[in-house]
Amino acid sequence: MKTKIIKIHPKNMDKNDLEEAARIIRSSGIVAFPTETVYGLGANGLDPLAVGKIFQAKGRPADNPLILHVSSLEQVEMLAREIGDLARLCMEEFWPGPLTILFKRSSKVPDIVTAGLDTVALRMPDNQIALALIELAGLPVAAPSANLSGRPSPTSFHHVREDMMGKIDMIIDGGATGIGLESTVLDLSGEIPMILRPGGVTIEELRPLIPDIVFDPSITDMDGEIVPRSPGQKYRHYAPRAEMILFEGELEKLVAEINKRIAYYSRSGRRVGVMCTDETEDLYREALVISLGSREDERAIASNLFYSLRRFDEEGVDIILAESIEGSNLGSAIMNRLKKAASGNIVKL
Ligand code: TXA
Ligand code: MG
To answer: Distance between the two ends of the chain, CA-based, in angstroms?
Structure first.
């Protein structure tokens, strides 16, 4: 398949440029587009055949449901059977933005979108290109992250091209995404309000509205046996091709242990990468060292994370030794992605 590429500047956007993309969506094709979190792989969310093409292009397991992206409240009313007060508050406060909310689904939502579940995940992205595309298409747009299943999510046009060239109809190059981690998935349908996937909106930001909010137990107990409620959370995800080990503990101990391991793995002929922070960057030798940013700046770390995982692969690294970071605010989403990238390969010091 020939993949058309168009470049659009979000600040200086001509809606005519997006007409063609909207037409592709309306006629059951697939268009990759930028959002404020990561790039998405978009199709008509009401058309099971179009949605099927997304699963095929990504190689995504059929039991992993998709988020429908909306540009208006009317679309939410069409797709959700009921909208509770708390959900309304959250939409007012955080939309457009990196918060996905689960609703009881209406009969309009095809089975393939929800993988047969009774809930549908909805989100209004905070990106002018994404919003204009949904509006022009006049449809809810089903969109997972635009990576091949299992690979790190794409935070730039180049990542999307790497994974999707020749597999989809169009890629919109809208520059780098801002946040760099996916949206928070929030389930208000049960007795206890729960975050099923930590993301761009933090639990600290949600608490004033939802004082009793908790993380799904599988998130805080990742080496345990608890089955996550969000199907996507059970897969090895966000993963580089290289093996990755995540080190948790006091910073000084981390640095000492990682340096020991650099020497050890290098001796056996492996190319070693270290994923660290500005504070420790100069303390490592004889490895490909990439800093995600300062420990004081979680936003920088979040936005550099997936990009850095892909860099290690490009550089042909065999093993990545990664520092853990503080788990509060955006840190919990960052640690969630790091743990998954490491496939549970965690060393506690
Ligand atoms: O920021 C984002 O959310 C990006 C951009 C493109 O919007 N999208 C994204 O989609 O990350 P995806 O498909 O990569 O991740 C969606 C997550 C998966 O873990 C999936 O299992 C979960 O949301 N999910 C979707 N519908 C669900 C449902 N009905 N119940 C529980 N989890 C659901
Ligand atoms: Mg994804």
So the answer is: 49
